[in-house]
Amino acid sequence: MRPLRLGTRGSLLARRQAEMAAEALRRAVPDLEIETVLVRTEGDRRAAEPLEAIGGQGVFVKDIEARLQAGEIDLAVHSLKDMPPDTPAGLVVGAYLPRDDARDAIAGRDGLDLARLPAGARIGSDSRRRAVQLLAIRPDLRIESIRGNVDTRLRKVDAGEYDGAVLAVAGLQRLGLLARATDVFPPEAVLPAAGQGTIAIECREADSEVLGLLRAVDDAATRTAALAERAFLRALGAGCRLPIGAYAVVADGEVRLAAMLADDAGGVHRGEARGPASSAETVGRSLALRLRTEAGA
User: Fold this and answer.
1) Total Cβ atoms within 10 A of residue 103
2) Least crowded by CB within 10 Å, which of 50, 94, 114, 228?
3) Looking at the annotation, which residues are catalytic?
4) CATH classification of the domain holding 165
5) Which residues make Cβ contacts (< 8 Å) with residue 4, sequence separation at least 6?
């Protein structure tokens, strides 16, 4: 196997996820040489701006994909939740690593959980999905934009700029910071983003050598869940800017998908669908069409 160049963002979490990907690949090919190439993405360059102002989905991915398309790297490692549902021409997700905890958590100031935070507490989140679901639990909360990597957000909470910040459990786990979570929300309360907790490894579709390697580390259940969740996103359309959540579980040959879509008035529409694991994308599309009708999207 030739030496491989693996592209990733430069944040602590992104580098840890790249290490996890490299470790999985070396378990398949013990003598594999991997060089990590750090890529500064648009989301990194414009870190002071709200995500929605710079385009939201894809801003942490596109620059890395451009390097992959140009042949400057052989692999790209992403948080799947950052990837748009359609992969660029010539590229393919060759492997989904086994999914980690997909739930969201809050890191409250002074160790306070959500119930004990003061009235009108300032909660840092740049996600409308998280905002609408948290406000359904605590309408008094003030959801305010927060940017920066996980450690930066935690420092802002510690400095008193926010009373708490909402973060993905998987990210906290990978950085050894899970103890900072003061509340972990079950999917029934706060549905995660599609793909949350999953590391995706992307490569060129024509690179048969790398594709063969990635098949050895691809997790079938995680791929099935990803197909259902991403089909849900795709069916809503690239122009959909409404808050969206989707979470699929695969068991006994069946995929069960729970999803939410908020309307322009802030109403949250939830639904579930299930079907054979082999029809994961059909399950995702059908649920998207149903919720889109309910939300008037």
Assistant:
1) 20
2) 50
3) 82
4) 3.40.190.10
5) 25, 32, 33, 34, 35, 74, 75, 210
